[in-house]
Amino acid sequence: MAAEQGFSYTADALRGLAQQVLDLARAGGATGAAVEVSEGSGQGVTVRHGEIETLEQNRDKSVSVTAYLGHRSGHAATSDFSSASLRQTVEKAIAIARFTAEDPFSGLADPALLATQEAMALDLFHPWGLATDAAVALARACEAAALAVDTRISNSEGGQVSQQQAQFVYANSNGFMGGYPTSRQSISCSVIAEADGAMQRDYWYTTARAAEDLDTAEAVGRRAGERTVRRLNARRLPTQSCPVLFEAPIATGLIASFVSAVSGGSLYRKASFLLDSLGTQVFPSFMQIEERPFVARGLASSPFDSEGVAVRDRTVVKDGRVEGYFLGSYSARKLGMQTTGNAGGNHNLIVPSTGEDFSALLRRMGSGLLVTELLGDGTNRVTGDYSRGAAGFWVEGGEIAYPVEEITVAGNLRTMFAGITAIGDDVETRGSRRVGSILINELRVAGD
């Protein structure tokens, strides 16, 4: 991978630096070591009212090393790739390890679990190579499309275009070395509308590994404008209990709460409302969650996790029952289990729809609350208690009636998960959790 792809180093050069760090750690007395060498570059453009507001170019690089002295570990990092700096960084990591406490659960991943095939056709690298003038033109087109939606759109926070690419190599003293390049492109827009002295703001964005998978700039702008205008003349609701439909981009947060509750750190600290939940019914029997690390161009695809452990397709929730946790090596050892290849987080999670489109979900709900925005983080991960500021729309007779704001939705995540009645086919694909809108049978809505 040469400089013409936007990188300063070839992949072989990064591998050479990684091996140099491992050799230095071994020579310095480390019983084990892990290193990640990475570099990235990109460009971001923001246009506001048709004029360039920001134009940013970024280029960065890093070497991070973890050195082990038995079960003691130390970590250090540098952005200087010179031999002298690498030596000093390794020495610092080893020195830190000497003064840390023994931790019998620390250490590198089990060699038997490391990936043996890194070159998988995941199609994660598609540099855009968009010239600055072209990026500015796209940002202008995006903003102009938003402003043209309605004369009540009175202000803009700008149209943005971003192109980023990176490459890395991870290696450890158990014989693993692997890495690959990635890219991520995005277009976004945020505008403000005003009516009767009250203002509302909303936004939209598109993001993908490859530019050809992005929505058009004009489509993003129109969506941002339409979402903003529809929030005008919002009302408050009387306090009540009712069905709640979480729009797909918001519904991903419910899946994120589940992931957090069954992830290693929460489990071994006993700071989760889903302790000892393997094999237990948490969701309705129609609900499945699959982890698919090998989705082509997936935003959370990878052949191995951040410890070099091979990942695999697996079922996390089957027929509503928890079939797997999200563990790295450290948390797995603390729990007396085996890593699931999730050091660094979950891979692509797929939550199948129950078959209804968004309109059908509204009709099924009848009367209730559609949530399109959540504010703050009022989630107690120990008890599962959930209370979030919200905005959205009141639904009557299966149709959106009017926008609402300054309300709170509250419940308990365990009850909420069990109370899921339908999942839409309007799947959100812009992140690591792919799920449609989620309908929950009842939550407490606090308003007037």
Account of the protein in words:
- The protein is α+β, with helices and mostly antiparallel strands and 448 residues long.
- It has two domains: 3-229, PmbA/TldD fold (2-Layer Sandwich), CATH 3.30.2290.10; 234-448, no CATH class.
- Helices cover 23% and strands 36% of the residues.
- It is built from nine helices and 17 strands.
- The protein has helices at residues 11-27, 83-98, 132-147, 217-229, 248-261, 264-268, 329-335, 358-365, 413-418; strands at residues 32-48, 51-69, 72-78, 153-172, 177-195, 198-208, 240-246, 289-291, 314-318, 321-322, 349-350, 368-375, 385-396, 399-412, 420-423, 433-434, 438-446.
- It has a six-stranded antiparallel sheet.
- Helix 1 packs across helix 2 and helix 3 (132-147) runs parallel beside helix 4 (217-229).
- The chain starts with 10 loop residues before the first helix and ends with a strand.
Name the descriptors.
about 450 residues, five-stranded mixed barrel, 2 domains, PmbA/TldD fold, 17 strands
Q: Helices, strands, pairings?
A:
Elements: H1 11-27, E1 32-48, E2 51-69, E3 72-78, H2 83-98, H3 132-147, E4 153-172, E5 177-195, E6 198-208, H4 217-229, E7 240-246, H5 248-261, H6 264-268, E8 289-291, E9 314-318, E10 321-322, H7 329-335, E11 349-350, H8 358-365, E12 368-375, E13 385-396, E14 399-412, H9 413-418, E15 420-423, E16 433-434, E17 438-446
Parallel strand pairs: 7-12, 11-16
Antiparallel strand pairs: 1-2, 1-4, 2-3, 4-5, 5-6, 7-17, 8-9, 8-11, 9-10, 12-13, 13-14, 14-17, 15-17
Helix pairs in contact: 1-2, 3-4
